[in-house]
Amino acid sequence: MTASNCIVLSSDHAAIQLRQAIAAHIAAHGWEVVDIGPTTPESTPYPKHGEAAARLVASGDCRFGIILCGTGQGIMMAANKVKGIRCGVCGDTFSARMIRQHNDANMLSMGVRVVGEGLALDIVDAFLTAQFEGGRHATRVEMIGALEG
Ligand code: RB5
To answer: Which of 32, 40, 65, 112 is least enclosed, having the fewest CB within 10 Å?
Structure first.
């Protein structure tokens, strides 16, 4: 596994099927996928899955993280509690592109009850192909980091 090519995927029970579809999609595009589950449908709390994925991104083991729950909101909130994580919830491709270009997001969250599979895959592509623009945006991203203390 090389960190620059690695994407960690995680979800709660609600989004297992979409997570597996995303895993196949990004693997077909040459990314190394670290899918940390879950794989069985029992109810499981989104904070622990958001945290687990976020830790692999914050440590540098994975370049990006993609996380999913019913709305994408709860798991995003948990991931953003981990130092160094900038995760946005996206339900459209414009936002997915912009959180990379302007916010240097290192994680993407989506809601399986919000987006269908086709849109979700387009959102993933928009996120992964956009580049951080730096410049004035770098200063602002540094300000976000400063809030972490
Ligand atoms: C689980 O039912 C649901 O609460 C969860 O998937 C997510 O939507 C929370 O934000």
So the answer is: 40
- Residue 141, SS3 per DSSP: helix
* Residue bearing tokens 């959102």: 123
Report the separation in Å between the CA atom of 1 and the middle of ligand 1, taken as the mean of its atom positions: 31
Q: Indicate the top mutation candidate among 12, 18, 67 to test ligand 1's pocket, ranked by most ligand atoms within 8 A of CB.
A: 12
Residues tagged active-site: 69, 102
Catalogue all structural domains in the chain, each as residue range(s) with its CATH number: 3-146 (3.40.1400.10)
pLDDT tens digits, one per residue of 81-102 = 999 999 999 999 999 999 999 9
Indicate whether residue 72 lines ligand 1 (CB < 6 A): no
- Global pTM reads 0.97
